[in-house]
Amino acid sequence: MADPARRGLLVTFEGPEGSGKSTLIRGLAERLEALGRPVVTTREPGGTPVGERIRSVLLDPSLPELRPETELLLMVASRAQLVREVVLPALAAGRIVLCDRYADASVAYQGAGRELGRARVDALNDFALAGAAPDLTLLCLLPPAAGRRRFGDREPDRLERESAAFHERVYAAYLAMAGSGDPRFRALDATAPPAGQVDQAVAHLRGLEHDLLAGL
Ligand code: TMP
C-alpha cells in the first residue's frame, strides 16, 4: 500500500469566502512545526511564480469579460503547475503539505457556482493532479452571508463580487461534499473561535494515523 513516491501528507482546506481558512492554516502549521514536523503551506490559485500571475488575472475585478470556461482552465493551469513544482516534490520528500484550496474548489466554484458541470471539472482535475489527491480535506463551513460580513471595508475581488445566488451554489456544493460520506471530507465549524478550529483540525488529522502526525 505504501507508495514510495508519497511519503508525505496532503491536507487541503476548502470553504466559502471569508471562512477563515488562512488563519486556521497558520495555526495548524505552528502546531506541527512546534513538533518539528516539516510543513509546506501553499495556496490556490497561486503558490508558484506562474500560479501567482494566473491568480492576479483570475481575481482582477477589472476583467469582468473573463468567461467561465477560461476561468476554469486558468484555475486548472495554476493547479497543474503547483502539483508539479511544489506538491509532488514535497510529498516525495516526506513533508506535510497544507494547501489553501485545491481541486474541490473548482468543483464548487466552476462546476456548481458557474454551472459548468461536474464531469468536465473532474476530467480537468484528473489531468492537473497527476495522482496528487488529498489525504484529507477540511471543509470550513460558513454560510455565505456570514462570510460576506467578514470582508469589512476591503474592495471585493472578481469572484467575491459574484451574486448571492452564485455563492449559495458554491456553499451548497461544499455542504454536499460534507454529506457525501467520503471519509476524505471532514467538516469544521467556521463560526468557532480560531483556536477551537485548530483543535477541530488537529482531531481530524489524528484520525489519519500517519507517522508524521505521531504525538500531535
Ligand atoms: P481565496 O480567496 O481563498 O484565496 O481564493 C481565491 C478565489 O478563487 C476564491 O474566490 C475561490 C476561487 N477559486 C475558484 O473559483 N476555483 C478554484 O479552483 C480555486 C482554487 C479557487
CATH topology: Rossmann fold
Instruction: Report the principal-axis shape.
Output: globular
Helical fraction equals 40-55%
Report the total helices.
Answer: 8
Low-confidence stretches: none
With strands numbered from the N-terminus, the spatial order across the biggest sheet is 2-3-1-4-5
CATH architecture: 3-Layer(aba) Sandwich
| Average pLDDT | 94
User: What can be said about the biggest beta sheet?
Assistant: 5 strands, parallel
Bound compounds, please? thymidine-5'-phosphate
The number of distinct β-strands equals 5
Beta-strand percentage?
5-15%
Short descriptors:
single chain; 216 residues; alpha/beta; Rossmann fold; 5-stranded parallel sheet; 8 helices; 50% helix; binds thymidine-5'-phosphate
How does this structure look, described?
The protein has eight helices and five strands; from the N terminus they run E-H-E-H-H-E-H-H-E-H-H-E-H. The chain is of the alpha/beta class and about 220 residues long. A five-stranded parallel beta sheet has the order 2-3-1-4-5, sandwiched between helices. Bound molecules: thymidine-5'-phosphate (TMP). Thymidine-5'-phosphate (TMP) binds near residues 44, 100, 105, 109 and 110. Thymidine-5'-phosphate binds next to helix 4.
